[in-house]
Specification:
It comes from Kordia aestuariivivens. By secondary structure, the chain is of the alpha+beta class. The chain has three helices and seven strands, in the order E-H-H-E-E-E-E-E-E-H. The chain has one domain: START domain (Alpha-D-Glucose-1,6-Bisphosphate, Chain A, domain 4). The chain is globular.
């Protein structure tokens, strides 16, 4: 198995950090844009799409700032995905910084997937 590459993508988003964090950290919020349905039991979140399910462990979160998950298949590795809310101190512009890991040959596809996912989040939020 080859090593995955860590990458970051920044997405400007028009939302308050508090509202945004609800969509990033709660099963009901995540199910509005990230997957069809989300269930959580303790630190484990089950993400459901059409006919597949993926389980991710909540590695940590800081209210209104960031949340970090690790897919079950990546257990025992340093791979995770993180959604971080960044607010520019001067302009107060809000961005989401996505940190994730991907195989090199799937990197562009992974970035496009996040682009689509964050696009869905922006639609839900009424952001541009």
């Amino acid at each position: 198995m080859s090593d995955k590459i860590k990458y970051e993508i920044e997405f400007p988003i028009q939302s308050s950090p508090q509202l945004l964090f609800q969509y990033l950290s709660t099963p009901s919020g995540l199910s509005e844009w990230f997957s069809d349905n989300v269930n959580s039991r303790g630190e484990f979140f089950t993400f459901i799409w059409d006919d597949s399910e993926e389980v991710a462990k909540l590695l940590g979160k800081k209210t209104n700032e960031r949340i970090r998950f690790q897919w079950e298949e990546d257990e025992g590795t340093s791979y995770y995905f993180e959604l971080k809310i960044q607010v520019d101190e001067i302009t107060k512009d809000v961005s989401i910084i996505v940190t994730d890991h991907s195989d090199e040959d799937e990197l562009e596809e992974a970035k496009m997937l996040w682009d689509n996912q964050i696009g869905s989040l922006k639609q839900v939020l009424g952001s541009r």
